[in-house]
Amino acid sequence: MRRIWRPMLLAVLLLAAFAYLNNGGLTAPRLAGPPTLLAHRGIAQRFDMAGLTNDTCTAARMLPPRHAYLENTIASMRASFEAGADVVELDIHPTTDGRFAVFHDWTLDCRTDGRGITREHSMAELQRLDIGHGYTADGGRSFPFRGQGIGLMPALDEVLEVFPDRRFLINIKSDDAAEGERLAAWLGQLPPAARDRLMVYGGDRPIATLRAALRDLRTVSRGSLRACLLRYAAYGWTSLVPTACAKMLVLVPVNIAPWLWGWPGHFLQRMQSVGSHVFVIGPYHGGAFSTGIDTPEDLARLPAGYPGGILTNEIEVIAAALGLSRAVGGERR
User: Fold this and answer.
1) 167 backbone dihedrals φ, ψ, rounded to 5°
2) Cα–Cα distance, 188 to 96 (Å, whole number)
3) β-sheet bridge partners, residue 168
4) 156: which of 32, 58, 100, 263 fits an S-S bond (Cβ 3.0–4.6 Å)?
5) HSE (side-chain half, CA atoms, 13 Å) at 105
6) How many domains does the chain fold into?
7) Which residue ranges does the record assign to the GP-PDE domain (predicted)?
8) Which residue range is the domain that position 76 belongs to?
9) How far apart are CA 70 and CA 153, in angstroms?
10) φ/ψ of residue 65, rounded to 5
């Protein structure tokens, strides 16, 4: 019996030693540079997050305004980049006249003075609406942005024209494969360098269609992220990166990150080697909504000198906490 167990024990010990050395800090690559900041929704009005559902009208539960910016507008995006964002997230809907409207909600009733499903309108109709119409912080007694958002809903092509050299994360709001086909056709007309500055996330069906049509585009969906991380958990200790992780936006909850093989240096380098970008998000507790890295306390949960991506709802707070700002011309200082 001892003759059988000794080789097995030795093999286990050797594998454990290999896994430790292959993923431990002693062999971790030294990655330099500041973190990449992704501003979720850009600079936007914040709202009470308690008890949110997919149908919650967040404009009706706005917190007292601290600034005049509305999400998904050119002004908000510009302010986000000026505050220190490297990437700004925006939401899109196809329109009846063949364009993509940049707007968060599935319907118009909550934020605007319009009615109905957003994608059942033309871009011309949408740009006549007041996107600040429904915002209130006091239960409807006052509407501080009413009348100030007329004509401020941009189209995706307008955003890329205004910011030709900036990076964006595009959110497809549906799980419709046809929408993936439509966006793939539109993005396929862009030069490869312009497409390389874009990432897309959304439902499993449109993202699968996009990945099949545009293999150079970084994408993620709930299903593709699960496939990537589960496979990496199974054999990432070997340094092999699952093909499911290639050309992805890899979103990692801050409470899950320390359990990933080789976190942070090895993990970041391995994902970079397959063309993927890693962004840490807020802690995951099994619910439908995930937060960002939004406070200095959240930042403190990251390793010292962390050089990867950070998704935040509070770009001004996080950029300031990291000592990052923008100089004239868009360079960090």
Assistant:
1) -105, 140
2) 20
3) 88, 198
4) 100
5) 22
6) 1
7) 51-322
8) 33-321
9) 10
10) -60, 140
